[in-house]
Each structure stands twice: as C-alpha cells, then as structure tokens.
Amino acid sequence: MPGLPVWGLSPHRQSRALLGALVGDSVKDNQTVENIERIFKAAKQGDFAVFISPHYYYPTDYNWKFAGTLEQMMLGVKEFTRTGPLTLDGFVGSGADWLDRYKPFIEDGKTIVVSPHKVYGPQSNDLVLQLRKRNLSKVILLGMLANLCVEAHLRDLIEQGFEVLVVKDATAAPHHPELGDGYKAALINFGYVANAVLSTDDVVAAM
C-alpha cells in the first residue's frame, strides 16, 4: 500500500478509560492500544505520512447550548479538556495528552497534528486541507471511537473523494445496555462505506 498516509485518530490518554466499562471490553478484545502502536511503528519505518485529528475542548466550548448523547457524557466529565487554544498549560499528563507509548511517534517532528475536531467528524478541522496540500488521496484510518469519530471521519473523507481503508481492530467502541453494540454497528457500516476493511496484521504486512 505505498503512498497511503496513516492517520491515528485519537491517541489521547483518556482513550484507555474512555467511558469506562462501556468501551473497556472492546479495547481489550481488539487489543486496540497495542494495534495502534503497531501501525505507528510500521508507518514510521515505511516513511508514511502520519496525521492526528485530535479531539479537544476549550473552556469556551462548555458554553454550548445543546449536545448529543455522547457529547453530553464527554463534556460532563471534561474529557479532552485543554486550558485554551494557544496554551499548553496543564496539557502534559492530562486526559488530552497523548498516551506515553505513542509520544515518540507523534512528537518526532514529522507527524502532522491537525486542528481539533469538536464533535465527531473532520468538518470542523483542517485534516482535508492538510491531505490535499500533500497530494494525498489514500488514507488508512484508525483510532477511537469506531462508531462515532472513526465512522464520521470515514464518511466525510469518502464524500471528499478520498480512498479509505479502515483498520478494524485498531479501534474500539462502547457497548451500551440500551443503545447497543457500537463496535458491531461500526463494522457493518465500515463494510458498506469504506474502500477496504482489514486487520492490523494484514495492514502491517502490506506496509
């Protein structure tokens, strides 16, 4: 798959405990954290372009007048909160910070960290601009959460004319007793929407 940029969607610290028990089983079953790291390693060894689409909230975002179901949960626990758009005060070690195991890959001076997305999709950030400015049209997509941020990014990138491969076990999703199994729902939609859906083993072997 030469020429495919690799994009780790949301490698924050709180991804490990995001929504607690709702996501924990999916992360363990898929070995999500480990598989994202494997993709990072293969991408860097293969000189792939790596993009991060972070999810941050700034203090002014807490003045929003309405929010969807999961937005309310994330805003309620102040998930991915930054002290401001132009400061890193309090960032290191916070829920918005990267997982320590990912920092060597993200902070190598080559990885492109785009402006933050605010809900689920990249419509509110500059991911598409950064890809187009590099003449990149193929994306390997992974990260949290499968049925929300990953699927929203997938749908928008497809609509924007990109070819998108989703790494199905380098992601995870909540399993809610009333709302249902987000991971199962995501896999169904990945199959319908993406150009390809592969495992981490297959992607790493091809890279």
Automatic annotation (TrEMBL):
Q: Which Gene3D superfamilies match?
A: Isochorismatase-like
Alphabetically list the UniProt keywords.
Hydrolase
Signal peptide extent: none
Q: Which domain of life is it from?
A: Bacteria
Annotated ranges, domain Isochorismatase-like? 24-200
Q: Which GO terms describe its molecular function?
A: hydrolase activity
Q: What is this protein called?
A: Isochorismatase
Organism in which the protein naturally occurs: Stenomitos frigidus ULC18
